[in-house]
Design goal:
Blueprint lengths: L2 H4 L31 E4 L3 H13 L5 E4 L13 H5 L8 H5 L1
Parallel strand pairs: 1-2
The structure holds flavin-adenine dinucleotide.
Length: about 100
């Protein structure tokens, strides 16, 4: 194994700012039929700001925001290398270090 990969073998692959104890636990996946007044798809900057602004303008609004992976998973929560590389199973280590 290359020395630089060996140095990382006990590392946890995570974004520091997403891997915080204060981060709320994910809600259980939606199931069955759901109804709402406003459905927002995607928990990046666009979806979260849309949700925030909609709630600010109408706190009673029945709003659901759905996210396929986890909030901040896309470009909004990841740096370039973290966006491009999701760990050794997603691509080769050579690709990640190139
Ligand atoms: C490498 C990189 C560097 C960048 N650097 C900068 C910078 O320096 N300055 C700057 O201003 N901008 C930068 N950007 C751009 C900025 O990050 C994006 O424009 C912004 O984060 C896009 O936000 P978004 O909410 O539209 O998309 P995303 O952050 O991609 O969020 C979309 C979310 O929707 C979810 N989703 C997608 N499809 C579905 C579905 N069908 N159902 C449920 N959920 C779904 C995804 O999982 C994801 O979490 C950069 C982007 C990248 C990739």
């Amino acid at each position: 194994m290359e020395a630089h990969l060996k140095a990382l073998e006990n590392s946890k692959f995570a974004c520091f700012w997403l891997d915080q104890e204060a981060r709320p636990e994910p809600l259980r996946p939606l199931s069955g039929d759901q109804r709402c007044e406003l459905l927002i798809v995607g928990g990046g900057f666009t979806g979260m700001w849309a949700a925030l602004q909609a709630k600010e303008s109408n706190p009673e609004l029945d709003l659901i925001l759905i996210e396929a992976i986890e909030i901040g998973d896309g470009g909004s929560g990841r740096s370039g290398p973290a966006s491009a590389w999701r760990g050794p199973t997603a691509t080769t280590a050579e690709g990640a270090s190139g």
